[in-house]
Amino acid sequence: MAGAVTTFPAGTVAPPRATAESPLIKRLLVGVLLVFFGLFLVLPLLVVFHEAFAKGVQVFLKTFQDRATAHAVQLTLLTAAIVVPLNAIFGLFAAWAVTRFTFRGRSLLISLIDLPLWVSPVIGGLIYVLIFGRQGWLGPLFFPSQETLDSNFLARFLYDHDIKVIFAEPGIILATIFVTFPFVARGLIPLMQAQGHKEEEAAMTLGANGWQIFSRVTLPKIKWGLIYGLILCNARAMGEFGAVSVVSGHIRNKTNTMPLHIEILYNEYQFAAAFAVASVLSVLALLTLIIKTYAEWQTERQVREAAGTGG
Amino acid sequence: MAKSRQVLPGFGLSLGYTVVYLSILVLIPFSGLLLKTFAGGWEHFFKTITEPRVVASYYVSFGISLVAALINGVFGVIAAWVLARYEFPGRKVLDAIVDLPFALPTAVAGIALTTIYAKNGTIGSLLEPSGIKVAYTQLGILVALTFIGLPFVVRTVQPVIQDLSADVEEAAATLGANRWQTFRRVIFPALLPSILTGITLAYGRAVGEFGSVVFISGNLPFKTEITPLLIITKLEQYDYTGAAALGFIMLVASFAILLICNGLQAWDSRRKGVA
User: Fold this and answer.
1) What's the fold here for domain B53-83+90-274?
2) Percentage of the residues of chain B whose pLDDT score is greater than 70
3) Which of A28, B10, B70, B113 is the most exposed place for a label (fewest CB within 10 A)?
4) Going by C-beta distance under 8 Å and a sequence separation of 6 or more, which residues neighbour residue A101?
5) Candidates B4, B25, B150, B246, partner chain A, best to mutate (most A CBs within 10 A)
6) Where are the domains of chain B?
């Protein structure tokens, strides 16, 4: 970035150059960055791990033998195992539709895919409570009175099989799907747009069918964009708090995910246990950042290659 | 729109699947929200959104979010500049850690920040003698919202700095400008649209934020209660129309922020078109 290299005889002071900051300013700016990042990013992470082990490794390990904690871990893993594949399929279909075809309402569709990223996560829970909650549109079905139970077959069936959405696992999964569905699509759309679809068209003229085009031509090209989206989707699915908090009802051993369990432990002043669970999610966050950074480098390389070959 | 332009297969399937998925998850539930908002009539809606406790929460949510977004505007530009222009050991690690607020669950951030800024915390104990309280005050909300918005300005400004061509800076230098003049007259105007976009994005995120705030705020009515928390309070009281009304207000606010963002981007591309 700096222009020509200039050398000055020893003893003379170099005049201030207008294409770069003076070393003093440089050092000052780097210092500001270090303090800002130290305070807001590094310190919170250090505190999580410090507090998790503040009462010793024994207490840390004991946290995870507790039944409620173990259940919260299970529910979080189950939620991610359902939500991530569903949103991956959606993301692939949505990215294919949006980048391979032009149609009316295309930009509206892209904005709709982004919607969960700009509304409050609390609204992501609220909308489902308004449908499935006690006073919601379908409330009489899920929280029936004796009268409805006798007259409505569906309400009877749901009641007999103890099927609920709000204050139950389906609500948690639904709210998590809502807050995480943009990630895979968002990881793929810019990449697929940049790569274009000449190769897919070539494969088609050579007689490949739709599935062959996707699995042999497109998938290898978008691999790192897909991984990028999946890893962010997974991180958010395991860590979501606001939306899940609204629909869960915080029932121990039933509807408590890891983030919700952290809140309960923290409010009961079991700080070491709360931070022990938090430290596991922090390790997940750090792994996510590492994989995400690597995937970004790979994606940039793929886009550069695509640009280089004129594809 | 012509059929002949859809060369590749899968148009019907992929678009159909996308639209059905979005209808079930978004369109139908949001219609439910709209219907519920006005189910109690206009008067009830208006009364709910102008309750004194609710209005106080607007000041907290929208006001403190603005301050947090502006703080991120200043430090985010410095961070973006340093990460894009300077070479120093540890730069790549710092660059990767910028996105921590995206990856770290908000509840984890919430309890960590509360512990740091509580009376006996790492920073809280340093501020205690001078009488500055952070945790359980509006200052604490500001800290949480600054944390949550940190990546936005950095990530929108950083690529623009990287793409800035050295020619204009060198031209300014040959014309006799010093570094400060070059920055103020040449670099800053080029960065301005992305800075404003980043601030708007950080603001939008902060307005809706819940997880990291509820731990550090103390949730005192009229003082440190945010609007998303009031939505949950109303739901717990089975006041669904009230909760829907507040949800509607938040939605309108988010929509306005999104429009500003799109406007900024349109302004930016128009300016680039002229240049």
Assistant:
1) MetI-like fold (1.10.3720)
2) 97
3) A28
4) B5, B6, B8, B11, B15
5) B25
6) 53-83+90-274
Domains and CATH numbers, chain A: 54-308 (1.10.3720.10)
Q: Identify the residue with better confidence: A10 or A1.
A: A10
User: What is the identity of the amino acid at A235?
Assistant: A
Average pLDDT over residues B211-238: 93
Residue A5 has pLDDT above 70, yes or no: no
Sign of CA dihedral A84, A286, B215, A56: positive
* pLDDT at residue A13, as a whole number: 53
Contact B142, B61 (CB under 8 A): no
- Sign for the CA dihedral angle at A149, A154, A160, A163 comes to negative
- Global confidence as pTM: 0.91
ipTM given for this complex? 0.92
Contact B144, B113 (CB under 8 A): yes
Q: Is the pLDDT of residue A39 over 90?
A: yes
Contact A242 B210 (CB under 8 A): yes
B17: nearest CB among A93, A101, A263:
A93
Do A110 and A291 meet the contact criterion of CB atoms below 8 Å apart?
Answer: no
Scanning the structure block, which residue is given the tokens 């995937």? A295
A215/B contact by beta carbon, under 8 A: no
